[in-house]
Amino acid sequence: MNKKIVLVLAVIIFAITALITANLYKSNIVKQQTTDEFLIRDYSSIYGSEDAKVVLVEFFDPACETCAQFAPLIKELVNKSENRLKVIYRYAPLHENSDIVVTLLELAKEQGIPFDKALNTLLTNQNSWAQNHMANPEIAATLLEQEVGFDVQKAHFDISTVQDRINQDIKDMVALGINKTPSFFVNGKPLEKFGYDELKKLIDSEIKKVY
To answer: Where is 91: in which H helix or E strand?
Structure first.
């Protein structure tokens, strides 16, 4: 294992462990607010047209197999929507060590690496760094380094910049009661029955309402 990757990840783990733990176990003190207040944040990554009126919010875990399976299907829905649908990605790091991997994604963004490119790299190679519901951040970091030019040595300088984003996503995840991934909301409406057909039906219904 590359020593610089291990060192940088040790810094990342130290910086975010207390943060993640605190938020995952304090759901009982979250104030009651409307669902919409927890769904969209201005820092979140988007796929699709900024002007799209139908908004699909996905809380996902990069180590989640179902998330990886749904990823190309979601993109296909967006690409066929004629700029009427966009996806907003939110983190829900429920698998072991996934909190570190989502931090790597945000650090890659800080380096100017397109989010979609970094995420696609992780999801299409998921079986190399995530197995048995456990993520291996060292392998994920090496993969990003090799495939998209992620600078691991530089990454630790940006940790404080991305902490608030990870913190907020976890707070929102807890507030919304999300305990599985992927979890979808379409224009603020939760997908009640999970499945691709059900999701497409909800999206189509919202498109018809607003267009």
So the answer is: strand 85-91
* Domains of the chain, earliest start first: 3-210 (3.40.30.10)
Type of residue found at 168: Q
65, 126 Cβ separation under 8 angstroms: yes
Asked whether 27 and 174 are in contact (CB, 8 A), the reply is: yes
Give me the tens of pLDDT residue by residue for the chain, a chain 211 residues long.
Answer: 565 666 566 656 655 554 554 444 444 434 434 567 899 999 999 999 999 999 999 999 999 999 999 999 999 999 999 999 999 999 999 999 999 999 999 999 999 999 999 999 999 999 999 998 899 999 999 999 999 999 988 887 888 889 889 999 999 999 999 999 999 999 999 999 999 999 999 999 999 999 9
